[in-house]
Amino acid sequence: MAAGGTEDAARVNGGEVVRAFLEGMPAFELYGAKVVGLEAGRSELEIPFRRDLTFDGVTIQAGISAALLDFAGASAAATLLPEGWTIATTGFEVHNTAPARGDRLVALGTVLDPNKNLGVARADVFAERDGARTLCATGLVTTRGFAPRNRR
Which of the listed CATH numbers 3.10.129.10, 3.40.1190.10, 3.60.60.10, 1.20.1530.20 matches domain 7-146? Predict the structure, then answer.
């Protein structure tokens, strides 16, 4: 994932480089995911409810909420990388805490360790119905940053 500038630059540009990367990702688009907000070390993403994302017509399948958790944690970490760097998820752990039933899923990512070489972010996924949120998944996302290569 491309990242936008230093911590200060991410605050100034609102993570526009990270936003553009996410919104251009085919998997992000497939799930109908949207960027709600990005700032240095934090992200807020959502997936509106769609019947085709459920396993029973009501509950969004856990793999979908896990993908949103990964997107949220990695995008929060990406906002802190230097300009031109890219990022990859090296691992993530998800704990489902409640059924993902609601009008939308909302994921909040927060960086715990901003190390460029091996960073860690926490992400929580909430099922939201009529403005009330229920935690449905929580986990950690581990990322690795990659410096830009000289291209000629």
Answer: 3.10.129.10
In eight-state DSSP terms, residue 43 is E
Instruction: Check pLDDT > 50 for residue 55.
Output: yes
* Spatial contact of 97 and 123, defined as CB atoms under 8 Å apart: no
What pLDDT digit, counting tens, does each position of 1-20 carry? 434 444 444 433 348 899 99
β-bridge partners, 132:
129
Using DSSP's 3-state secondary structure scheme, residue 102 falls into: coil
Going from the C-alpha of 148 to that of each of 1, 83, 95, 151, the distances in angstroms are 12, 9, 34, 9
